[in-house]
What does this fold into?
Amino acid sequence: MNAIELNAVSYQHKEFKLSDVSFQVPQGFVTGFIGANGVGKTTIIRLIMDLIEPDKGEIHLFNKSMNEHAVEIKDRIGFVYSELYLNEKWTVKKIESYIAPFYSQWNHNRFLFYLDKFGLAFNKKIKTFSTGMKMKLSIAIAFSHHAELFILDEPTSGLDPIVRNEVLDIIQAELIDEGKSVFISTHIISDLEKIADYLVYIKDGKIILDQFLDNILNQYQIVKGDVSQLDDELKSLSYYVEMNKTGYTVLTTHAKVFKELFGNEVAITKPTIEELMVYLEKGHHDVSQHVDGEVST
It folds into this structure.
């Protein structure tokens, strides 16, 4: 079962365009959503949350359409947006009195717990908060009504490393109940290294990867060797090729070919999520069509 499904979703605003975007967010896992700035991550989150309408395609959460079941679905979602859209003249206390009625399982004590954990004063006005404090407040709200799905848009933005780790630990703790799911968009890839189970990667308005992370990292490998080994055929089997005086580095799903040809003369390693994203961003091959490591180039 999937917590979120997008099927052939298209959207255009001025020069920005998403075409036939399809992917899934499996229930009970942390799904990392990555891609360069400006490729449409925040727009897709807005589409999922029904803040803007797609031109065509279908979006389902918990196998239901947001159009038909908006109140029920949003009651089950903990949403952290990259900006906090609340009246800055309000205190945290007033914000809670405004927000709590929207959630059937709002937990005041849980909210106070997170305020205390993040060092946020209950009677202070939002306008006195820093960017990081506003993000902490947004996270406290999201985690205080027993949500089943957390949609997090840059949730650790503006947070210092210690608090970032605390937030990631909270996300992991929430998943002790495996019925809960997380969809997290972030440019801090090291965050995903710690918590992600599944990866959705968007490039140029298209979904490039949509798989469990272990499967992805078993498919794609980094190969390093002497430049003299690298011919045009081997380059064609690689998504990214970098050459310099000391040797070459390639990202490929055909590491076995390199190993069979050169044995111990090549070094083969699994990429980190950050290396995978950087190499695929820089690469020129189409990686959107692949099955079990076989790729159309």
Remarks:
- Confidence is low (pLDDT under 50) at residues 288-297.
- The first strand starts at residue 2 and ends at 13.
